[in-house]
């Protein structure tokens, strides 16, 4: 094992649309030589709490991309409001396992 590896992050497209990746996280956590690795998910936050509950046992944290605080702007950028994103942020905040990332597009941002 390379000594500089300290974790794995699932991202690209929307990671949570491919929940079978949790088997990878489970294998990492169940393998003595790998269990020190952190397992993170990069997400847009649109997964429902029931989905998050399926991955929580093997997930060290979630990086949630909040496109805008404003629902109107979020709708314009993503086609969806922020309700589920804020629910996801709250879900992971309660567990202390989140990083929030904000998108800023100068010509599109409405605060």
Automatic annotation (TrEMBL):
Keywords: 4Fe-4S, Iron, Iron-sulfur, Metal-binding, S-adenosyl-L-methionine. InterPro entries: Organic_radical-activating (IPR034457), rSAM_sf (IPR058240). PANTHER family: GLYCYL-RADICAL ENZYME ACTIVATING ENZYME YJJW-RELATED, PYRUVATE FORMATE-LYASE-ACTIVATING ENZYME. This is Radical SAM protein. It comes from the Bacteria. It comes from Providencia rettgeri. GO terms for molecular function: 4 iron, 4 sulfur cluster binding; metal ion binding. SUPFAM superfamilies: Radical SAM enzymes. The lineage of its organism: Bacteria, Pseudomonadati, Pseudomonadota, Gammaproteobacteria, Enterobacterales. Its cofactor is [4Fe-4S] cluster.
């Amino acid at each position: 094992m390379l000594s500089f590896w300290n974790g794995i992050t699932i991202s690209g497209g929307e990671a949570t649309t491919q929940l079978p990746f949790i088997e990878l996280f489970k294998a990492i956590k169940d393998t003595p030589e790998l269990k020190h690795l952190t397992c993170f998910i990069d997400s847009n936050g649109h997964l429902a709490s029931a989905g998050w509950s399926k991955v929580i046992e093997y997930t060290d944290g979630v990086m949630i991309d909040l496109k805008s605080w404003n629902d109107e702007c979020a709708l314009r950028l993503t086609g969806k409001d922020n309700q589920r994103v804020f629910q996801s942020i709250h879900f992971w905040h309660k567990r202390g396992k989140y990083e929030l990332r904000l998108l800023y597009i100068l010509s599109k941002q409405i605060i």
